[in-house]
């Protein structure tokens, strides 16, 4: 029975089928839904919306924490429900619609969306749809495997629909820390001084009269599409572990390093996993997504505490961890993404931020989002929040893509998400470039020597040599800066045809 | 007599000529000097260094707050003293040496330099040379018209040289607030909750035994090279005042707006000056440089409080303000640039940040530093610190340069300092583009319509139209993205020869 999860009994009468709850959402509205990297997303109301859109015009602005699971972005796209989408997505069908210009996608730093809503520079939010594992005696909403932007959506929305998910373990209650910054001009410092700091409530506090409907669901989170570590991700992890060992030797870091952040995805997850074999202990995490590696580090006795905004696991890890999630209580905290990604906290804690680059250039500028400068992949996500303010800002990628037809290190990135000022360390399976304190010409030498794949190294060095002859603080040949990208578009490879393609 | 300014009498014996003090600086050393936007710079020791370099090899790494006055960067460059320079400069001769690759210039966010020094990711600082208007009874150094990075340089350096400048009014004492963040992992929130918050001491606290020499000087600060407002800067200010008026009408801002920041230079200064004529009152500033406009707003009764890291004035304003600087006491505070530019404080206060772009593109990416993507102008300065974390991030520029041969709005910027994620409002004399909540395609339409000069508008629209046919979230024609820049290099104008150049 679900009623024991709705502890404010006056709300029992609000339980309705998803179709009925979805009627609260009308054409033209702005809807804020829970969901962050496939976890804790609303799973029933969006499907009901898509179904309704078959028979009536229904276009909405959809805001979430980050990406959704359960194919919800695909289904909403195919039903033509999305007029506008923000601040992040990772769905192949939605991505194509964005790139065709059919859905207006606003790609934002994940910490900033709710600032814009609160100051009414965006919005208003008409309806919030929030997955919960329980509703408290006072009508507070207990989130599930993510918080994301749920708290502020619920607080600002005129009406709130709660999706009570009975598959989400009740043991999640107490693992959330819902802190909302006070209003300007009287905003106080965010009281998060360590990864463990508790600053807020274990539920989202709202006026229960705003809860307009409750929908009971039983669908699980989607699992992460994480590939297992391979020779290249192991090599990347190895370079990074060597580097961190060097930093310890220099006395700049201790064996517990500094609070760790790792972006979503295979490479960053593999790198964190790799720390298990390093000479590290008493680690802490202050990240946005807690992935398989977080629980592997816990179980290996290496990790003391992890703070994030969501738990996103592979199918196997999900099946293993979720039933015993209660055993991690006291070692794990989920925060609103505004706090997990807040510049104030990141700078204060002095984080080691590890994020994945789509491509980077010989001067250390990073493209995280746009294939060939034009086609959106997923979005900047939290990489900017972390890269700018981290103690060490690290970007990782394999040096090659598409079997060698693409070099991930190029003369000039085709889109800049993080520029030279925000990038300290670059790592590919080839090696690691430590860019701290270097001028652009020095950065280029280091990157070409240490990170570019041998099949592109002489090509990159040749570009840099010829650019140096023209001079400049950051030497470039503007007429050739994108020649590699254009060659790929024209021939299917960034390598010149005179060079045998790998 | 200068002895009344050295209140710790045991230091009287440390007074030496600049040549003798300069001997403390040896070949290969890293030297941290005071100086921020031509104010409060060390004025005697660097000249003695340059002179010594005529007869012996003397190469140093020079760190400052920001740019220096009194031609010091030129003189040190001509004397071939600079091996490495950071984090900012604005000298035409040094700039050329940087662009020739003779001086390694590390262009940094102004808030970050001391973080890197403190965590020993750069440095160590061998000698600090700090201009002071007095030394306290306990050996504390009272800075002059800027603080910049002086406090941390002095705290970290092995030896400190004080330049006691007798032309700097003693009334400056008490106008500084020297707060240094506590060490990680025990760093506390920065206790700056309003523009006026006092968090630290009115002097730089150091062990007086580190003061190895005191040099007495009488040279004034250089004045700012500020041009008077013209028709275009007035038009830019007018658009911005209209916009701010609209924001008040929408209830998003009050008539006291939000704490204001304006970058160094003519346009930003003119825009702030323009606020005198707007319907605003009880304004506050939380900026890095306090320029003529700050004192004009004070004297017009519009401004209640100004916080900065330096006071940089035109020659006329300097002559007027400096003798009566004491009359601004209680309304003005100078902070270390780490604090004036700190992400934590900027995000907390919710600042309106107004900075100058060198060029921006149709999607709202901003280039603040590199002419034609290669030649360094000055550096990113504090523009990134403010643009990323401001409540409203505004960039201003005239739509044309070089008599119309250059459009400041281009298809793709040749270097990215601030990307689309960090830019809310763009203004040229043509008009204002409000980019909040817009997707790239919408941003392009707005920017082309509102900001591009009519002589380039159809050219920009044509590029965007053709790029749209290729599709993408951010449509571009990579093979043409820099065609305007290349045309300027080849023909002296970004306009095609078929179009009559202005």
Automatic annotation (TrEMBL), chains A, B:
GO molecular function: any one? Answer: acetate CoA-transferase activity
Q: Which residues bind CoA?
A: 378, 382, 402
Q: Which GO terms describe its biological process?
A: acetate metabolic process; acetyl-CoA metabolic process
Which keywords does this chain's UniProt record carry? Answer: Plasmid, Transferase
Q: Where is the Acetyl-CoA hydrolase/transferase N-terminal domain?
A: 14-215
Homology family: Belongs to the acetyl-CoA hydrolase/transferase family.
What is this protein's record name?
Propionyl-CoA--succinate CoA transferase
Q: Can you name the source organism?
A: Azospirillum ramasamyi
Give the lineage: Bacteria, Pseudomonadati, Pseudomonadota, Alphaproteobacteria, Rhodospirillales
């Amino acid at each position: 029975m679900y009623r024991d999860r709705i502890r404010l009994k006056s709300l029992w009468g609000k339980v309705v089928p998803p179709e009925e709850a979805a009627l609260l959402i009308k054409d033209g509205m702005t809807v804020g839904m829970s969901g962050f990297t496939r976890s804790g997303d609303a799973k029933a109301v969006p499907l009901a919306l898509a179904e309704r859109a078959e028979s009536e015009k229904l276009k909405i602005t959809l805001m979430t924490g980050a990406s959704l699971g359960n194919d919800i972005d695909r289904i909403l796209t195919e039903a033509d429900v999305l007029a506008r989408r923000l601040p992040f997505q990772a769905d192949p069908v939605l991505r194509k619609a964005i790139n065709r210009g059919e859905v207006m996608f606003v790609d934002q730093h994940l910490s900033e969306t709710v600032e814009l809503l609160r100051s009414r520079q965006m919005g208003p939010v008409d309806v919030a749809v929030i997955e919960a594992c329980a509703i408290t005696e006072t009508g507070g909403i207990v989130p599930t495997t993510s918080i994301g932007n749920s708290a502020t959506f619920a607080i600002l929305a005129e009406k709130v629909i709660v999706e009570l998910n009975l598959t989400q373990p009740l043991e999640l209650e107490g693992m959330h820390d819902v802190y909302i910054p006070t209003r300007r001009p009287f905003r106080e410092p965010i009281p998060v001084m360590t990864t463990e700091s508790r600053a807020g409530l274990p539920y989202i506090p709202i006026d229960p009269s705003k809860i307009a409907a409750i929908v009971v669901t039983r669908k699980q989170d989607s699992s992460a599409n994480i590939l297992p570590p391979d020779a290249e991700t192991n090599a990347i992890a190895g370079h990074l572990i060597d580097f961190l060992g060097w930093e310890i030797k220099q006395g700049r870091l201790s064996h517990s390093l500094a609070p760790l952040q790792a972006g979503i995805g295979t490479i960053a997850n593999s790198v964190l996993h790799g720390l298990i074999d390093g000479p590290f202990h008493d680690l802490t995490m202050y990240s946005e997504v807690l992935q398989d590696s977080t629980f592997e580090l816990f179980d290996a006795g290496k990790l003391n505490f992890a703070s994030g905004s969501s738990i996103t696991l592979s199918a196997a890890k999900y099946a293993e961890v979720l039933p015993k999630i209660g055993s991690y209580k006291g070692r794990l905290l989920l925060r609103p993404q505004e706090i997990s990604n807040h510049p104030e906290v990141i700078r204060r804690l002095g984080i080691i931020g590890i994020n994945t680059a789509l491509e980077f250039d010989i001067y250390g500028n990073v493209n995280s989002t746009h294939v060939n400068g034009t086609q959106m992949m997923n979005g900047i996500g939290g990489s900017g929040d972390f890269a700018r303010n981290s103690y060490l800002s690290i970007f990782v990628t394999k040096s090659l893509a598409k079997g060698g037809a693409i070099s991930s290190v190029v003369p000039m990135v085709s889109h800049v998400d993080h520029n030279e000022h925000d990038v300290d360390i670059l790592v590919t399976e080839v090696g690691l470039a430590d860019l701290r304190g270097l001028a652009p010409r020095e950065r280029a030498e280091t990157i070409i020597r240490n990170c570019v794949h041998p099949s592109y190294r002489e090509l990159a060095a040749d570009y840099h040599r010829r650019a140096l002859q023209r001079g400049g603080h950051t030497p470039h040949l503007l007429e050739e800066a994108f020649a590699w990208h254009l060659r790929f578009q024209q021939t299917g490879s960034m390598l010149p045809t005179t060079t045998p393609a790998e």
